Amino acid sequence: MKLYDMKQAPNPRRLRMFLAEKGIEIETVQVDIPSGENLSDEFKAINPRGLLPTLVLDDGTVIDESVAISRYFEQTHPEPNLMGTDAKSMALIESAERHMEFDGLLSVAEAFRNSNPVFANRATQGTDGVQAIEALVERGRNGTARFFASLDATLAGSRYVAGDTFSIADITAFCVVDFAKWTGMRLGDEHPNAQRWYAEVSARPSAQA
Ligand SMILES: N[C@@H](CCC(=O)N[C@@H](CS)C(=O)NCC(=O)O)C(=O)O
Fold first, then answer.
1. Where are the alpha helices (DSSP H) in the chain?
2. 82: pLDDT confidence band, cut at 50, 70 and 90?
3. CA–centroid distance, residue 157 to ligand 1 (Å)
4. CATH 3.40.30.10 intervals, the chain
5. In which band, very low, low, confident or very high, does the pLDDT at 138 lie, cut at 50, 70 and 90?
């Protein structure tokens, strides 16, 4: 089994955190996104979408999408549970995870991709020749600010993002908050609940993965 990874990138990071929580160690191959290694013929022969993380099983099966790969490992290594144990908790965790991804990760990515000169001609992940659009930087930053506010509101009522139990939704949210720093955006004094949660998640060994 082999995991194609990039140490600094947010989606591979959330998968590494997930694996670290479960104590799973697998061989990783670093693929350099800024230099375009993920767009090379060699990598696209493995994953034509050019995206990380990508997992290749021993039988040659290729799985991409961090949540799908996480689902695979949730099945093979059920403990500790990170994706729910029954119909209700599984649905609530998946709902929260999607909120973190669609409201948070996509907003930060929009601000980041359209402002970083490295990606001026690669504004869409996994492709070449897509021009950045300056107006999307502000839209992404506004979305990030809304995400911070809603994360804080969620965490006013619960210890973790999807209730009382640490889950994949916390991993996504945590990686989004750190990714936002690349755009100069951070949780502030107006987000005390998110700050309390962030300090707690930062102290988990998996935060170093
Ligand atoms: N929805 C995908 C997103 C994967 C993704 O966008 N990965 C980024 C790294 S964070 C990537 O591979 N970017 C390649 C590029 O920028 O060309 C997932 O959850 O795995």
1. 10-22, 41-44, 66-76, 87-99, 106-113, 135-156, 168-180, 192-202
2. very high
3. 31
4. 2-76
5. very high
